[in-house]
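Regression test case RT-17, inverse folding.

Input:
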């Protein structure tokens, strides 16, 4: 603990002009640029995961030397932060100035898209929790979220709390979902077979059986025949509860 006490906070690739650098002057490798390196980083992270990602592995993917990459980035952290913002660029953004569209629908779409992004890129969740998220795509998304929430009628001093409630829920839900799906993938079973097998085994546990049976009755009452349907149902209803909470706070004044 004491060893890290004097260490400055990790810098961001988006600060100090680092993100705008297209390559150091003179002698940089031909055929490389920031966009190509970032795209390859995203593909490699999707294919092999965060734990296996390295400058050496990325260089092999691009068929260059690892030192070639340092003409464009200073560290692996820079690459990961670039990849993170590239993923945020996949998010569709509604027009917050379009008053013909209800803010509730826009907020639902923004939340659903973020959840889907977390599931599509399993490496995104830990990186989003580590970095500042101040790349151009992340800022564009945050700006739209803020402007949509402004349309709710909440006073300014409550807006950030509403944004935190909705999007920390989405982050948590998407993070647990992608970890669950990763565990299923490792088992070789389908999500539905995995769920049924896990529930059957857990119900044989004497201390958990009663609670699990009660939980099963609740889930059966909610409906949903597949794991995907259950996860979508729970996500949508929880999001509706949060939106209803925003509406209630607006009415309360």
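Golden output:
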């Amino acid at each position: 603990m004491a060893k890290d006490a004097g260490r400055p906070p990790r810098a961001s690739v988006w600060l100090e002009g680092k993100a705008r650098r297209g390559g150091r002057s003179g002698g940089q490798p031909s055929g490389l640029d920031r966009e190509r390196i970032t795209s390859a980083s995203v593909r490699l992270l999707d294919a092999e995961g965060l734990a296996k990602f390295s400058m050496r592995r990325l260089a092999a993917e691009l068929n260059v030397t690892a030192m070639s990459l340092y003409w464009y980035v200073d560290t692996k952290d820079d690459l990961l932060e670039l990849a993170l913002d590239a993923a945020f660029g996949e998010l569709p953004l509604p027009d917050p100035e379009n008053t013909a569209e209800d803010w509730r629908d826009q907020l639902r779409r923004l939340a659903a898209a973020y959840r889907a992004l977390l599931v599509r890129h399993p490496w995104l969740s830990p990186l989003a929790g580590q970095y500042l998220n101040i790349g151009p795509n992340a800022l564009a998304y945050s700006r739209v979220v803020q402007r949509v929430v402004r349309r709710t009628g909440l006073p300014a001093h409550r807006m950030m709390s509403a944004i935190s409630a909705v999007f920390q829920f989405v982050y948590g839900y998407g993070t647990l979902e992608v970890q669950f799906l990763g565990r299923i993938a490792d088992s070789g079973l389908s999500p539905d077979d995995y769920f049924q097998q896990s529930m059957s085994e857990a119900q044989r546990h004497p201390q958990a059986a009663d609670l699990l049976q009660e939980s099963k009755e609740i889930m059966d009452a909610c409906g949903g025949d597949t794991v995907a349907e259950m996860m979508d149902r729970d996500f949508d209803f929880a999001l509706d509860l949060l939106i209803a909470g925003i509406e209630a706070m607006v009415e309360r004044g």
